[in-house]
Amino acid sequence: MKLSFKIAVLLMSVCLTPLAQAKRVPNLELKSLTGTTQKVSELRGSIVVLNFWATWCGPCKEELPLLSRLSQEYAGKKVRFIAISVDEAKNRTRIEPFVNEHKVAMDVWIGGDLDMLEHVGLGNVLPGTMILDEQGEIVARIMGQAHEEDIKTPLEWLLNGRSGPAPSPVTKRY
User: Fold this and answer.
1) pLDDT of residue 9
2) Domains (range + CATH), the chain
C-alpha cells in the first residue's frame, strides 16, 4: 500500500512539473500598421509565433525571411506569426517601407520596446521569439536569431498533440 501511494505521488509530480513551468504571456497591447489596437489575448485558440525585431537590427533582417517563409508554410494549420517592431516612435515611419521592401509575409504590430522583451522573459537581445500554445502559454523562447528548427520543433510538437519530448523552453542564439 505504501509503495502504491509513493508511486502515485511520484507520477503526479512528474505530470504536474511541466504545468508549473508553463507561463501565460502577458496581455500585450500594440497597434497594427493601420493603427488598429491588437492584443495578444485575442490570439488564443491559435498557436502563435511572436517575434520581436527592429529595422536597425542586422540579425532581424536575416531572420525575417525565414519567419515569413514559415508563416506561409504553416498558414493552413492554425498557426499565426506576428512580428512586433520595437522601433522607437520617432523611427516608426521606417517600418512599413521596410516590411514592403523585405516582403514580410506575416502580421506586423508596432509599439513594442526593449522593456517588453524583458517583461516576457526574452532579455534585452534582438531578435527575440516566443512560441505560444492555444491557451497563450509560453512553450518556447528563442533569444537571438532563430534557426529553422528552433521554430519548427515546438510548432510540430504542439500540432502533433504534444507527443514526444517537449521542446527546449529557452534557446540562446547569441
Assistant:
1) 37
2) 24-173 (3.40.30.10)
55 within 8 A of 45, measured Cβ to Cβ: no
Q: Would you list the DSSP string of the chain?
A: -HHHHHHHHHHHHHHHHHHHH-EEPP--EEEETTS-EEEGGGGTTSEEEEEEE-TT-HHHHHHHHHHHHHHHHTTTTTEEEEEEE---GGGGGGHHHHHHHTT--SEEEE---HHHHHHTT-TT-SSEEEEE-TTSEEEEEEEESPPHHHHHHHHHHHHTTT-SSPPPSEEEE-
- The phi-psi region of residue 161 (left if phi > 0; otherwise alpha if psi is between -120 and 50; otherwise beta) is left
Model pTM score: 0.85
